[in-house]
Amino acid sequence: MISDWEVVIRLVLSAVVGGIVGMEREASHRPAGLRTHILVTLGSTLIMLISMYGFQGLGANNSGGDPARLAAQVVSGIGFLGAGTILRTGNNIRGLTTAASIWVCGCIGLAIGNGYYLGGLATTVIVMIVLRNLGFLQKKKYTSPNKLLIVQCKERIGLISDIGHVLEKNNISIKDIKVNNEENNEEIEDGMMEIRFKVTLPPKLEDISFLDEILNLPGMENAMWEGDLELAYQKTKNKGETIIQ
Fold first, then answer.
1. Which Pfam families does the entry link to (predicted)?
2. pLDDT at 154 over 90
3. What is the pLDDT of residues 38-53, one digit of tens each?
4. Residues 6 or more apart from 244 whose CB is under 8 A from it?
5. Which run of H or E residues covers position 173?
6. Which stretch of 153-162, 190-199, 200-209 has the lowest confidence by average pLDDT?
């Protein structure tokens, strides 16, 4: 049996490392933050301590039983808590990283409760590097940019469907659609409408050829990009000219 001070040190250390991960999630405005991660890590450490030392003198030959049996339930049990942080809206799923951070904090708590300080602290450092730095790298290098496609056209049946086919052909995913016409926008001429598509682009897209496809649809007048990269690309069908700003 370890000393009382050792028990306190392990519990306090687990709360500290759980708080470090939790503060990062709190700063990122995630559903599970500082207190949740502290409690998960602290509880996992306590369960490990109970599993290792709480049953000494019991079981066959006073062995205390299998110390891994109770601790093993933490790994699967925390999955239910992590599932509560996962939100799905349409095709978008949020909270997976937070759920994973809760799960790994449970594992860190088990390591510290077992006295495996090196493994627990090294894992904490790696987790912080992943959460703080790799998220930026992912957005910078691998996430397809979101842009706003604005088209102006004459009202007709099936227009949005036709545009959708062109977007699908170019592997462009639609996130949101907003339609304006003369009824809700005085600047739009009679019989005309403006449609704004918030889309996610594939890694490679030929802007000019794509907009040519859009403008070749019946009733189409103008098409332009307005995106996160502040790229304004407009092609005017009537004038037959291209404007790039």
1. MgtC
2. no
3. 999 999 999 999 888 8
4. 232, 233, 234
5. strand 173-181
6. 200-209
